[in-house]
Predict the 3D structure of the following.
Amino acid sequence: MRYSSKYNLWVNELGTYVYREYNDPSLNGPLKIRQRQDSSKYLNTKSHGEVELDKLVADCYVPKPMDGKTYELTHKDGNLGNCNTSNLEWKEVRNYSLLSTIREALKGIWVKFDGTVWKEKSAKNRIPIVKDIGDSDTDRMVPIPEPYISYQVKNRYGRYDDKHIPMDNLMDMAGFVDGDKSGMRNRGVLHKDGDYLNFSDDNLEWVEKDSPEYQEYMRKKKEDLERRTIELNPNHPNPLMKSGN
């Protein structure tokens, strides 16, 4: 059995036995599991009111992903009365259709499958991707390793704060990055064709950073950044050339 600090209850992984401990040990014992007409199960408690059995089991054995997305708890076999750990699964609640080609990743910011960003769903008023910035110290243009978009958010004082978000993150928020990242140890977004500026949905995939394909992608990305630095500064000496070469 495992203990849920959220509900102050113990439950087994089968979802068939719930136990409560009190300050007075003589009151300790199992709680009655009740069932509704739709087969869903719950417990009546004084401190938390009605406690859904599936949520109690999930809290102990199937924790909800903490990645900022919205999830709902589902029963794989469709039986709401089957609260066995193996039957519970958190599924992401999407606010768009999987068939939609343009999706609202952030409020007022729409992302298209091809990696373009817009202020409107109708693909009007394109938001530019920041790929290069000026370096005042060297008087050169410098390519950005993680291209991003800039946007504004109104704060509690009614003023606007400048924010930015990397394109890989934005494409992930819109659901355009392939693969399941939830079980990965050290995940990264792979650009399959090796082009770090290609944000098309068919080019993005979650992989482990220590995988050979990701390491090769990072090697090529480093070369591309060095090449772009030279191309962006045609009137400056090659910053990559050693003195005397």
Observations:
- The helical segments are 53-61, 167-173, 212-232.
- Residues 241-245 have pLDDT under 50 and may be disordered.
